[in-house]
Amino acid sequence: MFDWLLSDATTGRAGLERMRTQFGQMLDAGRHVFDTAANAFLGHTDLEVIREDLFATDKRINRAERQIRREIVVHASVHGATEFPACLVLMSVVKDAERVGDYGKNLFDLAELAPEAPQGEHRDGLIQLKDRISRAMAACREIFDSHETDAAKRLIVEAKEIEDLCDEHVRALIQGSDAGAMAPAYVLAYRYFKRVISHVRNIASSVVQPVHKLDFTSKITAGEEE
Hints:
By secondary structure, this protein is mainly α.
């Protein structure tokens, strides 16, 4: 669906390139917010050291979302109904990119509220998941630039595996664990991790799915043809 952003057409090209650049910057900023906030929760970073940068980055994401939305409306008005489907897709994935920043802020808030930093096997598991999600976000950025459908499908499968793993951890914590006072914090952390990777999956789906199937990737994760 993003072929229109990669088009060599001269009509409207400047506007399309501007939106493409802005969206790529949103993806980069979202990864930065996630990495920074997750590291803070895991006890790697002093909260006061990163606070100003994290919230300033999130504000840039929000401004970029509003700017892209304005430009989508102008572009669709000028170039007509033939580009409406692609405009709808971009409007959707821009929201996904914005939500990544929001969940990053949630992780930062969790770092402030948690009684202590994660410990033991929970800490190790969260670090591994955080690293997988960060790599997936970097891959999503590359896929957006390259428009490689096979890579997008692989990322969608990877994202679903991470989502399922987050659910398994949440289920185990709710059904009983020795996490003590940190149990609620772990549950929230896994849920926030899952929501971040879900939004990454949604963005990747825009490379391979038509507008009416955007975000629906069950056949891809099952290895079936759409």
